[in-house]
Structure prediction request, 1131 residues.
Amino acid sequence: MTDTPRARKRTPLLPGLLVLSLLTAGALFAPLLAPSPPAAQSLENGLAAPALDHPLGRDRLGRDQLSRVLYGARVSLGIGLGTVALSLMLGVLLGCAAGYLGGPVDFFIMRLVDVLLAFPGLLLAIALAAVLGPGAGNVVLALGLTAWTSYARLARGEVLSLRRREHVLAAEAMGLGPARVVARHLLPLLAAPLLVQASFGVAGAIVAESSLSFLGLGVQAPSPSWGSMLNDGRSFLLVAPHLTIFPGLAILFTVLGLNSLGDALRDRLDVRFPG
Amino acid sequence: MLPYLSRRLAVLVPTVLGVATVVFLLTHAMPGDPVDIMLGEYAQAADREALSRRLGLDRPVSVQYLSFLSGLARGDLGRSIQGDQPVAELVALHAPATAELALAALLIAIAIALPLGLLSAWKAGGAIDRLSLTGSMLGVAVPNFWLGPMLVLLFSIQLGWLPVSGRGGAAHLVLPALTLGTAMAGLLVRMTRSSLLEVMGEDYVRTARAKGLGESMVMLRHVLANALTPLLSVLGLQLGGLLAGAVITETIFAWPGLGRLMVQAIYSRDYPVVQGCVLVIAVTYVLVNLLTDLAYAWANPRVNYGDDDD
Amino acid sequence: MRGILYTAPKAPVLRAIAGVCLGLIGLSAASLLLPGCNAAPPRQAGTLAVALEAMPTQLDPRLATDAHSSRIASLLFASLLRRDAGGRAVAWLASSWQAVDPLTWRFELRTDFVFHDRRPVTADDVVASYRALMDPDLGSPRKAMLASVQSIEKTGPYEVVFRLSQPDAAFLEAASFAILPSELAAERHLSSEQLIGAGPYRLLEVRHGDSILLEAHADYADGHPPIERIEFRVIPDETMRALELQHGSVDLVQNALDPDTVSWLKENAGHLEIRRSPSNSFQYLGLNLDHPALADKRVRRALAMAIDRQAIVDYLLAGRARVASGLLPPQHWAHNDGGPAIVYAPDRAGRLLDRAGYLRRGPNGTRLTLDYKTTTQQLRRRLAEAIAAQLSALGVELKLSSWEWGTFYSDIKKGNFDSYSLAWVGISDPDILRNVFHSGMTPPLGANRGRFADRRVDRLTDKALLTETVQQRARLYARVQKRLAALLPVIPLWWPENVVVTNRRLEGFTPHPSGDLLGLASAELLEKPPPVDSSSEGRAVREPLR
Prediction:
């Protein structure tokens, strides 16, 4: 790093880590923290405003919002992590193959990337979701199958530039097969930028889930996810704004935290890549 | 330049073919029959078959695919199943609306992001920097379907300055473009800032400072131009995200654009319309990317045309 | 991308940036200025703006099937007959009609009806219109409803005769089809300029995906409509429809707002008025009788007894529905709510399930698991969740899944469901009972999606189709409804009200139970709203409804 009088300060790691741990704690300990079962309805008390007994208010069916936000953390985080895991695996596999093997493999995979990128983003997920059907698992599939391109490009770019490094050439000279070379000698160098991309990816998946919910696809009732809570609350924007504010804040803090984490990691791991 | 250009153009064909194939497969894989949806509950089997035959939907899928491709080669996008209009006509009717919205959103995003990004990079680490970073993430994380009605509540209902929804004159464009543009502004702020910071740390900038140039001159002549050019190619990529966000914004604001047309066509299983829209958007996207990459390459002649092609 | 080096800057670089920016600005300016790009000129005074949830897919009345299209079509096209609030046939283009014998119907036409292009409506037009509908090459969905018609002939300049191949008491349903000019009736494809009818309004402009503009037909036989123009605007988002009403840029929204939003508008918008009246809709829970548990009528009755319909109506529908005591709505001429009533009694329901052999597995365990499919519409999903919670107290686990319409519809027709909820909308002839409950009417022939089969119901509904007098038909359908109330192939939920939110400037509009907007032809749009009276929610049809 060059040092100039205006060396940029590194993004603090603490806020991101804090948010992530709060989130994980909330998700893991939801059954203990939630004041009521998330599915417990009480029609007479629908749309109750936030009060002491129900700090985040109640939805139209009288369910406690705080409990649903906590349980929703499980679903949303699960979707975020699941999507990233799937797209990471796919992306790294294809990206490394493209970068390492080159030639027609590279051509074909890059064309695939181009095709996927050319699709208006949400549309592919909509169509996939319509084909696969509703449910959290299918949301992960639909989002994962469309999000792997950034990881693939990243992996490919890194592999291309690291390909000619000495230790790689040495490994090849020793007769190690391509899979081994990539796994042992290239992947570890990829870990840092991939991790950074992944933390942005989790945030992106959580936001994408709420877009899918808007179109009526995604997590099924009565399972709460922040995205579906946001969508359900949409009918009550005028009538009971607390129904959108709290899931929205949850998503907001998560996205802020994860992005901050990603930035902090990038600063510390000395990763340089655009975006 | 020329071999680069011709290589990029050559790659366009398989990409478009790929998009056409994927969209064809996906739409036909969706359960549900457009003929059923059109005829409704009480149609008799004979009528259903007749309509199916007339629309060419009773042919095997492979035949329909080939017919679709051959139509494409002729430039014929087919006819809508629902209303029998040529798809090209439908797309031409709706595309200007989306273009208008996307461009306005882009302009707003740039207008917000460039100055903010500049300020943040200049006073990196300061209060403005932190605020703008938070603001940018807000822009990305706040959903369009919430922001839209909120803006309407303020500007249309409370203040009465702007209309609620629909497409019309410039006044109708403001709120939807603002809604769509804020997410993109969020992304652009961060990219502008990081790009500027990278350039500001480069040797030649230090050299310029060492030569005694004033700070603002340094920024203007040396930093800005170099920092902004990578953004060009990013803008092309972001167009995809813009079109995705446009679907939701168009639905909210009753904006008669391609995004809404597409979503409605998906629901009514109007295959030719979905295929046509996706193809037009995909080709536009690929062309815009090509143009921005070319602009970038022209602006920065040391670009390596060699191995990688993105 | 990593292979890119930064160089010393060049002035041309700045020019490049400037060029791109100017290009963008230029493009957007051009798109704003291009003719035809700027839709929707400002609203003229005296135009009534109506918000629709979705664009009608097809304005050609011969081909349209969805509700939105029929709303607009009924303003553009006149038909031989129309229906009153009780579902009884009322004269329109036809001045009188009679069944000369069970196989022959004669209609005399009024002589003062005139198409939008000033041509008078004659028997030729009627004959041409019906012949086109019956033509297999046109592919009209209406053809199925004309299955019993053998021929139609003109017997005078203003008289037509239909000959049927078999007696069909529901034949008058077909008398509500749009009449088009004879030279256009047989055209395969009609452009919007060619959609000419004899209704109170004519089609002025269709902006695809956006709006439809209608203009009053000066020579309309029942009088020049006071409202000069009606604009139908497509606004897919429910919150925005409410905001448009509040802003005053939309004057009428019918059955397209959530119940809570309507209540909110009532509280917060003094210039709006809520009109509630009975509708011809019936919301029900459909069951698949091929499922071993659902084949047992005790199970079906237990499910019915465990749903607190009144609570759902009170809280989720803001009271704007009536718990259904039968199938056909109360104002319908063939309504009957005899037979065993459904009471909300979850304990008795539990005991009934015990007797049927579905015991709880463990304390508070599950007796039975069923799947429940719904569409993606918000209100429907909320209803599903409320019903699921109530049934889970009974020990019946409902697995909910919501699907977008195309997939949902396809699954329902294929019998790929255990339970679902939908509504009959715009009920007019009671022959719908045959279409839904006759054992021979499983899809694709009819709407018996639950695969219900009962010989008595088959016999009665077949007979009612061949019966002539209204009183006899009513008696037969009464027996059908009583039998269905005992067997419960579907669980009746409620009859939703017709809820219309209007700007108070709209005077004299009477909503129709079918959702038809023909009432607009005799309504007026004032310059300013009249002074406020005591309540802004009223205009309910006088009680009792029967």
Observations:
- Residues 11-33 of chain C form the longest helix (23 residues).
